[in-house]
Design goal:
By secondary structure, the chain is of the alpha+beta class. It is built from three helices and five strands; from the N terminus they run ααββββαβ.
């Protein structure tokens, strides 16, 4: 009987650790939308105001990088604009890191100084 308990405990521990590792990066579309609005967009357009945020492509895991495509509608100085971005997340050294790739922005930006666009940044 003891052998079965040890085996069961080890099996449960293995299943739990695999489930935790697989789900460690499973962020929701809402998380990506909030991150896009509160962090990425403010980093790229610090003086513009967000009107609406949409998740165009829900989060998808590819190897160890998860990504989602987000569209943000915002008010510019003269007219309303929109921006599409891919937000990528991964764990590096146990910490959540993110990187942003701007696909389309109807406002002209010549030099983006946002660190999220330049490379991986710790977000938690």
């Amino acid at each position: 009987m003891r052998r079965h308990k040890k085996g069961l405990i080890l099996a449960l521990a293995l299943v739990f650790s695999l489930a935790t590792a697989a789900g460690a990066l499973a962020l929701t579309g809402d998380w990506y939308a909030k991150f896009a609005k509160d962090k990425a967009f403010k980093c790229i357009h610090p003086k513009s105001k967000v009107i609406k945020v949409e998740v165009l492509k829900p989060p998808k895991l590819d190897k160890d990088v998860e990504s989602a495509t987000i569209k943000i509608y915002y008010k510019g100085w003269i007219k309303k604009h929109s921006m599409e971005m891919v937000i990528m997340t991964t764990k590096i050294g146990g910490k959540l890191n993110a990187k942003v790739q701007v696909l389309v922005d109807t406002a002209s930006i010549k030099n983006i100084r946002c660190k999220l666009v330049k490379g991986w940044q710790v977000v938690q």
